[in-house]
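Components:
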Amino acid sequence: MSRVVCPGSFDPVTNGHLDIVGRAASLYDEVFVAVLINPSKHGLFTVDERVEMLREVTAKYGNVRIDRFAGLLVDYCSANGITAIIKGLRAVSDFEYELQMAQMNYRLAKIETLFMTTNPQYSFLSSSLIKDVAKYGGDVSGLVPDVVQDRLRDRLVQR
Ligand code: PNS
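Structure:
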């Protein structure tokens, strides 16, 4: 069985992430979407909230599993029988850091990293940019799932 992981912060999930997850789900038997638990970084959404949103928006895929992890990604992969990491590449600017991580992960545990080119419709998207635009009342419809848009509105109004 081919089992891969799409790791990330997903604070929050965007349509760009979802595009990659959906395409990975059509190529592999099982796709784990793993949210990093990073105690040193305070996100807009808690890890539980990010997991909830991801579960909701990937419910239509029978072979996508939402999970969370702490520590090294390669240890998470080894513990779950995952043989490859899937990453989306938006632009050349992503490449240097991604290449470094891919080579380190291979060096650590011989885990392969496979890069998928982002759908050009979403190549300018990032969770940080979405939060910034939403914070100042900009329109993020079509860039994040509706449930995320609602949660962004609620969260930013509370602040
Ligand atoms: O969505 P992000 O924040 O760009 O995702 C980065 C992520 C979670 C993939 C990366 O930070 C990661 O794998 N962190 C886990 C810790 C780890 O394994 N570090 C060594 C990477 S070579």
